[in-house]
Amino acid sequence: MALWHALQRVLKSLTTAKRGTKMPNIEIYTSPLCGFCHSAKRLLSQKGASFNEIDVLSDPNRKPEMIKRANGGRTVPQIFIGETHVGGCDELFALDRAGKLDPMLAA
Ligand SMILES: N[C@@H](CCC(=O)N[C@@H](CS)C(=O)NCC(=O)O)C(=O)O
Questions:
Q1: DSSP symbols for 25-65
Q2: Is the pTM of this model over 0.90?
Q3: pLDDT tens readout for residues 31-79
Q4: 77 lines ligand 1 (CB under 6 A)
Q5: 31 touches 56 (CB < 8 A)
Q6: Number of folded domains in the chain?
Q7: Ligand 1 site, residue 33, Cβ cutoff 6 A
Q8: Residue 59's domain spans which residues?
Q9: Does the CB atom of residue 87 touch ligand 1 within 6 A?
């Protein structure tokens, strides 16, 4: 019985640790009919990353903010991981191919 309780405690601490794992804040500016946006979101979701999506078609007031934050980038998606401006879908996949995306998501 004592062993059972010890096991329960270990399991509880493991799940708590996982819940407490920090992921950076991810923001992605999108538009609904944009295939690049869907691909980028799919990749992030496959990696278990949650993100805050800003649909600039339904919320056009956010587009100037996107362009400013993206240093003039006008296409969607524009992806931000923590403080880093990743760029668009191509840049996100390039980061993944280079093995640099997972460490960024875990940071
Ligand atoms: N190379 C870019 C392509 C992005 C792109 O072409 N997005 C289209 C929507 S699917 C867009 O924003 N077009 C509007 C424009 O070019 O101003 C990426 O990988 O994100």
A1: -EEEEE-TT-HHHHHHHHHHHHTT---EEEETTT-GGGHHH
A2: no
A3: 999 999 999 999 999 999 999 999 999 999 999 999 999 999 999 999 9
A4: yes
A5: yes
A6: 1
A7: no
A8: 24-106
A9: no
How much of the chain exceeds pLDDT 70, in percent?
80
At residue 1 the predicted structure's pLDDT band, cuts being 50, 70 and 90, is: low
CA-nearest residue for atom 2, ligand 1, is 88
Query: Which of 75, 89, 90 most suits a substitution to test ligand 1, by most atoms within 8 Å of the C-beta?
Result: 75
What does the alpha-carbon distance between residue 18 and residue 12 come to, in Å, rounded to a whole number? Answer: 10
DSSP 73-91: --SS-EEEETTEEEESHHH
- Flag whether 2 is in a domain: no
Is residue 7, in this structure, part of any structural domain at all?
no
Q: Are 29 and 78 in contact (CB under 8 A)?
A: yes
Q: Is residue 68 part of a domain?
A: yes
CATH code of the domain in which 54 resides? 3.40.30.10
98 pLDDT more than 70: yes
- The encoded tokens of residue 64 equal 């100037």
Is 84 within a domain? yes
